[in-house]
Amino acid sequence: MTDDAVAAVGSIEHKAFESPVYDVMGGSSRWDVKIHEHGLIALVDVMPRLVPEGQTADSAIVQAARVSYGEGTKRVNEDRGLIRYLLRHRHTTPFEMIEFKFHVVMPIFVARQWIRHRTANVNEYSARYSVVPDRFYVPTVENVRAQSTSNRQGGDELVDVGTAQAFLDYLNKCQDQYAHYEQLLEKGVSREQARAGLPVNVYTEWYWKCDLHNTLHFLSLRMDAHAQQEIRDYANAMYALIKPIVPVTAEAFEDYRLGGVHLSRLELDSLRSGKPMDTTNKRERAEWESKRAKMGL
Ligand SMILES: Cc1cc2nc3c(=O)[nH]c(=O)nc-3n(C[C@H](O)[C@H](O)[C@H](O)COP(=O)(O)OP(=O)(O)OC[C@H]3O[C@@H](n4cnc5c(N)ncnc54)[C@H](O)[C@@H]3O)c2cc1C
Q1: Where does residue 224 rank: exposed (0-12), middle (13-18), buried (19+ CB within 10 A)?
Q2: Could you state, in order of their start, the residue ranges of all structural domains in the chain?
Q3: Which tens digits make up the pLDDT trace of 179-230?
Q4: Does position 69 have pLDDT exceeding 50, yes or no?
Q5: Is residue 152 within 6 Å of ligand 1 at its C-beta?
Q6: What pLDDT is attached to residue 289?
Q7: Whether the Cβ atoms of residue 16 and residue 51 lie closer than 8 Å to each other
Q8: Packing angle between helix 177-186 and helix 161-175, nearest 10 degrees?
Q9: Residue 73 has what pLDDT?
């Protein structure tokens, strides 16, 4: 745009906030949570960062939903009701008006699960440009899970100490690859090729920016008991970081999403008739049993 073109648009009018504002992160540059020995999730920025005193970032949802400005604090209860209504009825776009930016340091096997959430903006450490640091995820000996017999994707009970130690020995051997990696870099092999021999428990890091709606979607999937424990540890920390920023939405999320139960038609039929679920699918029956247990039936 030329200067003339800018001038044709007109002048920019700067408007002050109508009431005193405060920083939703309390003036901090970042809020860090350490995860495992080398990992980290840090909240580094929020939009909106400044909100009228007495309100929370939740106010941006209400502002968008009402497509209006300058809401007073006297409507706090109505605002809470509106946010809860929007969340219950999956009126999602007002929740996209809030954004969070995180700095995350995690093992590559966690990053691979995380990156499947396509609605975030990501910028990752380049192992072509920089040397991969010597950091590997190794669980404690008391935290090695056995293959679950009911869920092919999961682990639940712990293995005995001897087996756990054998697993840690195996991971240590994988880490020995790092010395070879360094030697090959010294010999002049490119970083982009040398990294190919590093195991997936080596750490990577990225900045991850996501709006509240999609962050809640991420959290509902990754805080769930079906998600792998290691990514759940990050998701739980992420939730702890955002909860004080959007407490009203968090309360609704817990009430309607985390603490709620979605029922299928077959499940409703079983509930109404008092008969077993009309299916031969064992997994579906097991899922219904766990929902019934959650409902105290
Ligand atoms: C417990 C668990 C086990 C899993 N196991 C596997 C596995 O074995 N193998 C595997 O490959 N993945 C697996 N996944 C990943 C899973 O299939 C999803 O890719 C991941 O959870 C991201 O979900 P999403 O697509 O809803 O999220 P996002 O990518 O954040 O998308 C959010 C929503 O946006 C919409 N959307 C985004 N992109 C598109 C698009 N291109 N087209 C249409 N709609 C779009 C969809 O409505 C989507 O729900 C697993 C996930 C979980 C939680």
Answers
A1: exposed
A2: 14-133+203-260, 138-200, 262-297
A3: 999 999 999 999 999 999 999 999 999 999 999 999 999 999 999 999 999 9
A4: no
A5: no
A6: 92
A7: no
A8: 0
A9: 42
**Amino acid letter for position 275:** K
If you take atom 33 of ligand 1, which residue's CA is the nearest one?
Answer: 119
Domain 14-133+203-260 belongs in CATH node 3.30.1360.170: yes
Decide: 214 in ligand 1 pocket, CB within 6 A. Answer: yes
- Whether 116 is in the pocket of ligand 1, judged by its Cβ within 6 Å, is yes
Ligand 1 centroid–CA 110 distance in Å is: 15
Q: Which of 4-8, 70-74, 262-266 has the lowest mean pLDDT?
A: 70-74
pLDDT at 12 (0 to 100): 86
Q: What was the pLDDT predicted at 10?
A: 81
**CA 99 to ligand 1 centroid distance, Å:** 20
Question: Helices 76-88 and 59-66 sit at what angle, rounded to 10 degrees?
Answer: 80
Task: Work out which ligand 1 atom sits closest to the CA atom of 228.
Answer: 1
Q: Which residues are catalytic?
A: 222
| Cα 75 to middle of ligand 1, angstroms | 37
